[in-house]
């Protein structure tokens, strides 16, 4: 019988912290009414243009219809029945033209990050969400400032301000970029 061997000392596994100490994007959670008002009162810079068209493109099941429904819910202030949202069959088309301003609405943040699933306000503390946004940027070349992580309404029975403000911020940027597009780089009005 030998002497008991000393227990091997396990180096302490570095514990991964899924959140940053500080939010990496400054986001005003209290801007819901401001954004809603801006969108409600919004009119295009070019009076000859009556409508802007927003193309919602993405893989099957990405949450396109849910996003459209979520926008509707925010403005209604309640969960509405499914807005008619027809799915285009032209998947695989490329929209990498610089002529069309692009925004990425990054859905399903609750599925991507447990921290965010528990508390949506952790969205800009989450390393996982930032990493996923970076992947969107790397793959599609859309600037980080035009990438908006959102959680769509999908199983809720009531709307809530945290979900609303993220949806509104994404929509506000979409509308602003579309309006900017009415001017070309030389400042001439396009239509
Ligand atoms: N957890 C979670 N589920 C979501 C979210 N957005 C959408 N979903 C769910 O994802 C599934 C697909 O969402 P849809 O909105 O139908 O996706 P879509 O892009 O319109 O899909 P197609 O029309 O088939 O191309 C549905 O079951 C939604 O409830 C989200 O932010 N979080
Ligand atoms: Mg759909």
List all distinct small molecules, including ions and cofactors, that are bound in this structure: guanosine-5'-triphosphate, magnesium ion
Count of runs of 4 or more consecutive helical residues: 6
Report the count of strand segments: 2
Silhouette: elongated
Q: What is the end-to-end distance?
A: 91 Å
Mean pLDDT: 89
- Proportion of residues in helical segments: 25-40%
Order of helical and strand elements: HHEHHHEH
Strand portion, in percent? Answer: under 5%
- Biggest sheet strand line-up: 1-2
- Biggest sheet descriptor: 2 strands, parallel
- Structural class, by secondary structure, is mainly alpha
Low-confidence stretches: none
The radius of gyration over CA amounts to 21 Å
Question: Can I get a quick summary?
Answer:
The chain has 191 residues and is mainly α. Helix 1 packs parallel to helix 6 and helix 2 crosses helix 6.
Question: What would you note in describing this structure?
Answer:
With 191 residues, the protein is mainly alpha-helical. It has a domain at 32-40 and 62-80 and 99-180. The protein has six helices and two strands; from the N terminus they run ααβαααβα. The chain has a two-stranded parallel sheet. Helix 2 (64-76) crosses helix 6. The chain starts with 31 loop residues before the first helix and ends in an 11-residue tail after the last helix. The mean pLDDT is 89. Bound molecules: guanosine-5'-triphosphate and magnesium ion. Residues 64-65, 85, 87 line the site of magnesium ion.
